[in-house]
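Example (one chain per record):
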Amino acid sequence: MTERIALYLQDSHDLRDGLEYAKYAEEKGFEAVWQAESRLVRDAIVPMAAYAAVTNNIKVGSGVINNWTRNIGLLAATFLTLDDLAPNRVICGLGAWWDPLAKNVGIDRKKPLTAMKETVQVMRRLLNLERVSFDGEFIHVKDIELDVVHGRREPRNVPIMIGATGDMMMELTGEVADGAVLNYCVEPSYNDKALELLDKGLQKSGRKMENFDRPQLIVCSVDEDHDKAIDYSKMLLCQYMAQQPHIAKASGVSDEVVHEIQSILGWPATKEQINKAKHFVPDELVLKITASGTPAEARAKVAEYVKRGCTCPILYPVGGNFKLLIDTFAQK
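Predicted structure:
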């Protein structure tokens, strides 16, 4: 199917268990472990540092952090620090965040394309250990550089990838980023348009698709019992549909289903609310936009995303048996 596979961890497990999953994924030949940062629940940087500290070869990525809440100097220093911990193993995945969460914490996401472009441009120069002055619409810095006195005073190899959802952000990703973190909760055919948009951006920067990395988040529920795997995915999907409208839109979910689920779920959602709302998620939707089912069924679905342009599946385990998923996709 693919020689590249990665693991995606969020917040459904004990954090210390995540260290064991990262080590186990490394043993089984996984290329990377990516840490989510989405709701107000678990930041990405602390787990990334922990994964890096207990592993030797596996890459560690942010999947994804927003470009609004850390100033550019702190953002660059953070990834310099991670690279000190795990040289040449760190990936910076950035995203434009989403409303209503951003608005509810006081962030006005105006001109998200400009803000993202400035972040990538200045971040790359700082990690290259350049002295930077930049007076943009969002980033204003004067004569700053990463102040490395003790340690490796050399440019850092930290790929900067964008987790894009909208069409214009996808095109920008092809223009300025080192790769695209393609979205989850979408059907494989979603990638066709995404690649067209990325190619438009790549043409602007004089690059080619074959040299542009396209890892993709994929919700993956694996259980020897097909029905249990489907049920696990429904619990996850109902929460995404209600709380992250951009995901629902990209998934092609009807407004009727979204509104029905939103009428049940609070924010934060309780387990009781999730168990009630999950029944409004159709089985066919689960099968359409996730890799859920028995190990064989999950492998077959992931292969569809690879055929549509995903270069490295980033598998988001749903349900309790994370090691079964890792074993299902083990490379060695």
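Caption: The longest strand covers residues 215-222.
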